[in-house]
Amino acid sequence: xxxxxxxxxxxxxxxxxxxxxxxxxxxxxxxxxxxxxxxxxxxxxxxxxxxxxxxxxxxxxxxxxxxxxxxxxxxxxxxxxxxxxxxxxxxxxxxxxxxxxxxxxxxxxxxxxxxxxxxxxxxxxxxxxxxxxxxxxxxxxxxxxxxxx
Length: 149
Hints:
Shape: globular
Radius of gyration: 14 Å
Helix content: 40-55%
Distance between the termini: 34 Å
Mean pLDDT: 95
Strand order of the largest sheet: 2-1-3-4-5
Largest sheet: 5 strands, mixed
């Protein structure tokens, strides 16, 4: 696995996660890149919009709208995507996912890799700490988010 450092796109995803937190939501952010430019951003809005499927990646992809092919895109997420989000990534044939961390939630890395998606986990303490603080403060919201209620 190629080791990368946090770049401006992950910084933007972290900013989206912080925006969600400020709105009372789960601090997970996402950014979609095509040809080196931001196509869309999003963050987890399950709490804010009372929508069980509006994870960070789903919000980001929804905000992208119809862009034709996703085959030359990269999606960033502050947390390893769950199976729902990973399924959408596979369905849209997004070839690469760059993740802030997966210690909080292992997600669906193996599933994505089995379907040809390159997954890079930056293991950023900044992302982990943000999730740890949220989970400590709102364990019931987190458990609902990952289907553990």
